[in-house]
Amino acid sequence: MIAYVLRRIVQGLIAVIIVLSIVFLVLNLSGDPVRLMLPPTASDESVAEMRTLMGLDRPLPVRYVAFLQRSAVLDFGRSIQTRRPAISMVQERLPATVQLSVTALFVATLIGVPLGMIAALRRGTWVDRVAVLTSMVGQSTPVFWIALLLIFVFGVAFPILPPSGFGRPAHLVLPSASIALFLVAGITRITRTSTIDVLSRPFVTVFRSRGLSERLILGKHVLRNAAVPIVTEIGLQLRFVIGGSVVVESIFGWPGIGQLLTRAAFGRDFPVVVAAVFVIALCIIAVNLLLDLLYSVIDPRIKVWAR
Amino acid sequence: MSDKNATIDDTPLLSVRDLSTVFRTDRGPVYAVNGVSIDVPRGEIVGIIGESGSGKSQLCLSVMRLLAESGRVTSGSVLLNGRDLLCLADREMRAVRGEEIAMIFQEPSVGLDPLFTVGQQLVETIRRHRPQPVRLAREHAAQLLASVGIARPTMILDEYPQKLSGGMCQRVMIALALSCEPQLLIADEPTTALDVTVQAQILDLLLKARDDHGSSILFVTHDLGVIAEICDHVAVMYAGQIVERSPVDQLFDAPQHPYTRALLRSRPLLSDARVHPLPTIPGQVPRPGEQPQGCPFHPRCPDAMSICHMAPPPVHRVAPRRDARCWLLESEADRAQASEGTAYEGENNE
């Protein structure tokens, strides 16, 4: 198992290098940061001087290698806008994003899983139809629209929650609800399908024949047997949580990595963009590894390290 | 076996009366069990034999009240010690399951949760009915496994079900079923999915359960050999109905119903199996919902008469605890009388 984890970490690092390379290329193709930093009236000499100063006059491959070397020690340079080390700017923002994502995922799981199970148990009844319809609507509604709707309803029409800001628990409600509502849809759908599948397995009838309570059968055996697809779904949705948080953080003024990334991208602040993408990629890879290990905890037949 | 005659006078442990079970389908209601009555006396093994689709399993599930969602018992009663199980609240019924009636199933390997060890599942069931510390329940579980002939029970307790063979799984299932020493054991084709050598061992276990605990067993199978081996009494089921009931030796010696005779003929005998091809019963069990009018067996019956197309045969008592549903057993006069009556009855049946 340790060998497996090590192999996965190496694979993850390769993935990070690829991500960094793509970011490096795209940023170098998308505009000249020197022109953006200097006033439009700056002379060609001062532009050239600035370029030399920043090392941008060297050929692309040389800069690429140097870039990777510095990335290896988490040195992504200083922010062009604030002149502070890019990685520490991202680090400061990390807790806020983690707080938002984890809350959203947690709430979505807490609502989606029971809802999906109830829909499966009441298959064909109005409860089921409402759940299926809601999850369809939820999945086809863009996060930004949900966010604006929530702001309008709870921040403007019935001003009971702060429409933006950070610090108090109340500030967390609307942004995490925006992401969670989207996630609930997918989790409900997959839980329903998975539960229906497990309920049709013979052992459920066998357990009932032994007089075990429905709560025990459903809460312990059915749920655990249905859990692997649900965990997979949550892992897949992680990307949307990150992607969604970029949008949601901007809308709600949430001081997380997403907001930082958006601003840095608009400002051609290369070092900050690279550092942010690096941290996000690292998070996704780490969580995916954890989820894969979680499979074997849920289902002893799955030995991911034996593949 | 010796005290069999003494128990006959007692009220039976299980008494199923006129039980009908209907399934909702897209093509309308379908009768899987159609007016079945059967008794299981104390300490006896009663067999139910029939082809696939004859309603044997649905009968068992009806007794256990474990029918699929689309199924419903529409009439009849299921008396266990004189108490109608169909009238119990869900909660009371759960207390009966496992405690008074236990069931073992055809596919042992899919009857256990693959994500929990054998021990965890045994302990769970034991503690459901006999609340006790996990450690004690585990000891009890090991004893149970030993009693069903599992060597090294404590090792098996820590195994996951998928590591066990089919025969081993069925032993575990029997151990689970016997964990509360139920008065009635319902065995739904418990040996069908197993190797022949393992089959015999499992049957021995069931006989031992009867002898040790005095449990009654309702044994469902489509294997006449198994019936001959362990049952005291047997009911032949066809298309949701019981067509013949008989003590097991008399059934083999003198079958009354043409279907029973056909079943017995289609059984391989060592003496002539190599010379003659085995006779088969032409046609198939009617699909539930496509029951023919009259006797459900008449399209396949070699002895069918005109009355068989028109009216369902009544139950004919041949001897004590011995009856059959066949027009052949009725007198000429009774047939003629029924024949006249079918003109309007037929319309009602439509």
Describe the structure.
The complex is a heterodimer of chains A (about 300) and B (about 350). Chain A has about 300 residues and is mostly helical. Helices cover about 80% and strands about 0% of the residues of chain A. Chain B has about 350 residues and is of the alpha/beta class. Chain B is globular and about 70 Å long. The chains are: A mainly alpha (about 300), B alpha/beta (about 350).
Structure in a nutshell:
Chain A is mainly alpha-helical and 307 residues long. Chain A has helices at 2-29, 33-37, 44-54, 60-72, 86-121, 126-140, 143-157, 169-199, 202-209, 214-252, 257-266, 270-298. Helices cover 36% and strands 21% of the residues of chain B.
Helix/strand layout:
The complex is a heterodimer of chains A (307) and B (350).
Chain A: H1 2-29, H2 33-37, H3 44-54, H4 60-72, H5 86-121, H6 126-140, H7 143-157, H8 169-199, H9 202-209, H10 214-252, H11 257-266, H12 270-298
Helix pairs in contact in A: 1-12, 5-6, 5-8, 5-10, 5-12, 6-8, 7-8, 7-10, 8-10, 10-11, 10-12, 11-12
Chain B: H1 4-7, E1 14-23, E2 30-40, E3 45-49, H2 56-64, E4 71-80, E5 83-84, H3 90-96, E6 101-104, H4 118-129, H5 134-147, H6 153-157, H7 166-178, E7 184-188, H8 196-213, E8 216-221, H9 224-230, E9 233-238, E10 241-247, H10 248-253, H11 258-265, H12 306-310, E11 315-319, E12 322-325, H13 332-349
Parallel strand pairs in B: 3-8, 3-9, 6-7, 7-8
Antiparallel strand pairs in B: 1-2, 1-4, 4-5, 9-10, 10-12, 11-12
